[in-house]
Every structure is written in structure tokens, then in C-alpha cells.
Amino acid sequence: MARIREVLRCLPGQNALVRGYYECDCGRGHWCLTEGGGAAMPALPADCLGVEWVLHHLVPRPPLDLAHR
Hints:
Oligomer: single chain
Structural class: mainly beta
Largest sheet: 5 strands, antiparallel
Shape: elongated
Low-confidence stretches: none
Number of strands: 5
Mean pLDDT: 84
């Protein structure tokens, strides 16, 4: 997985721009994985005191299987 240098933040319900692992900003270890490309960010957990999701690691898309063209 690639480590990112810029901080990308998304509010719950906002469309994720990139595929990756996101951590909430409360610091209690809540994580989610999004597919990116317009997928909506999930709601924060009920016990979460955070406000937004922060991109932690990018997850590259798998390569296309050219044998199935």
C-alpha cells in the first residue's frame, strides 16, 4: 500500500475521491475501506466523537485482466 503525503478528509456521506483505508479523526482507531470513485463514506460509529474520515493509506486498484478481452 502506498503511504500518502497530503491529507484528504471526507465527511460521512460525502463521496470518496480515492480508494483506500480511512481512519476517523477521534483517535480511537475506527477504520473503513472505500472503493473511491464516488462511493459514499460511511457514517461514523455510534460511540465515535470524531467529525470526519481521514485517508490513511491508498489502495491501488487491481490490474485489468487483459486475457478476458
